[in-house]
Amino acid sequence: MGKVIRFIIILSWLPFASCKQKPPAPNLPVPVNLYTVKSQKVYYYENFPATTQALSQVDLHPQVQGYITGIFFTEGTKVYKGQKLYEIDKSLYQAAYDQAVSNVNVAEGNFQQAKQDADRYTYLNNHNAIAKQILDHAVIAEQNAESQVKAAQDAVRSAKTNLSFATIYAPFDGMIGFSQVKLGNLVTVGTTLLNTISTINPIAVDFLINEKQLPHYEELQHPKKPLPDSLFTFLLPDNSLYPYTGKISVIDRAVDPQTGSIRVRLVFPNPDLTLKAGLSCVVREHNTDTKPQMLIPGKAIIEQMGEYFVFVAKDTLLLPVVDSTQKNNKDSGGKKDADTAHQRPSLRAFQRKVQVGQVIGSDQIVNSGIRDGEKIVVDGVQALHDGSEINAAAKKPTAQNGPGSPKGQ
Questions:
Q1: I need a labelling partner for 114 at 20 to 30 A (CA). Which of 66, 158, 249, 405 fits?
Q2: Alpha-carbon distance 190 to 318, whole Å?
């Protein structure tokens, strides 16, 4: 019985003995790749979504009512200023004009008769041959006849204007669209849309910028020194590059308070008439900053709640490392010998907030937050936290001239 009790006691002590023999697992350094920050000249384009617009555009509406009796253009083609486009039934307006002309002739005849009567009565009155009242009535009749002539002439001008409105002409050179009416359709004033004409050469390209960029674009609009010809280009919807370059024409009068953006208009030549109003495109502004900039791999940047961070590698305080002799002395109960210990540097990663700029391929410009010569973590950032110990020799180093580097661009 005593042997059994002793055996149970020994078994109960085994877990404690095994726990004493297992030391806590050390925190191993995180394997990473590092990148040395170095400022360099960077050539890139800043891209903005944009839309092509006509510099001038007008909707054609009838100014008189009637039936369409003639269409004198081909839809979707270029028309020229003064070209005849539509004709509205002008028979009524021609008749009204002819009647107004006839009324003028009648009014002018009445005026001549009244004038002759007034002149005759004036002569007789000078010789005291008629009553003064007869002369007064003749003068008033002459004045009334003259007013009737003026009214008839105004009616002629009104009838002539309506007659001219029965024919619609192109107000300027441009591209005409689909006709909204056909032959025989009744058109009314103020409600019927006939067609739309827009200019096509040159053509405008509108895009939005942030209000913080407004001073920069005002400087580009009125430069103090010559700007490169290729400052503004744009990509067509099929991502092909438009062969002509543009310049700033207009910056809108006010910033949109809801979005904090303002519209900028560029003007591009369109001699081949290949561009149409309403195209979706991408405006490219060539970077004119010649100062060196810090370009780092984009995978090194971490975004948190709208802010951007990188991990900067730094040597920290030295950690003691015990050699085998010191370990044997300690295990044998000997006194710790400080002279037998040596030390090694500890490489750690610290989180740093940065201000980022333009994205260029797989890289991104950093405007502030890091300095030239500092080493940042580019691989293994997902396993890091502020102050993590890292091992830069555990992975194959990342090439510093990647596909998104300035050489690649």
A1: 158
A2: 87
